[in-house]
Amino acid sequence: MRYKVPGILDDLFIKSNRVPATKEEIRVLTISKARLREGSYVIDIGCGIGSLTVEAALQVAPTGRVFAVDKEEEAIRLTKENAVRFGVEDIVTCVHGKAPEVIHNLPIVDTIIIGGGLSQDVIRVSAKKLKVNGRIVINAILLETSHTALIELRKLNFKDLEVLQAFIAKGREVGTKMMMIARNPITIISATKG
């Protein structure tokens, strides 16, 4: 099953209660802000189950690459399984380790997507790994993460800085009625390296 537009159904991914997963609507927005194209090279920091890794790989295929980074072994295992499930295992390289240390060994890329924990060091090292005019997209659950990201991106002279906060509610059938269930709001920060 190959999608050319992002937004693979959440239920199609192999998941674990112990490993975070970016929800489908947030993946759509993230991939949109990343401005990926065939042949792009991408680093996905804090890949979790690999849902964004898979979505990115489908966009950059067949000549692009996605490097999925996570400090948790189970996250790397699930990312590999999901890459196989969606037929992008030849495009995805999984890197087990803590950012920013393992990022030093990766190539210069067109786009970096950051989820999960974030520090000033991760943003600084990421900026060094981006091509000029490369895109960075940061998904933040915590206000402090958003604050850190904005300060660092400004210090590093990123341009086209954009902040989007998404509030998603999904319908769930309750008997014969439909009830809306709210998800946590996510702040998506995107910018271009100057």
Describe this entry's structure for a reader.
With 194 residues, this protein is α/β, with parallel strands linked by helices. It has a single domain (10-192), classed as Rossmann fold (3-Layer(aba) Sandwich). The chain is 29% helix and 31% strand. The strands form two sheets. A seven-stranded mixed sheet has the order 3-2-1-4-5-9-6, with helices on both faces. It has a two-stranded antiparallel sheet with strand order 7-8. α3 links the parallel β2 (65-70) and β3 (92-96). The model has no long low-confidence stretch (mean pLDDT 94).
Can I get a quick summary?
This protein has 194 residues and is of the alpha/beta class.
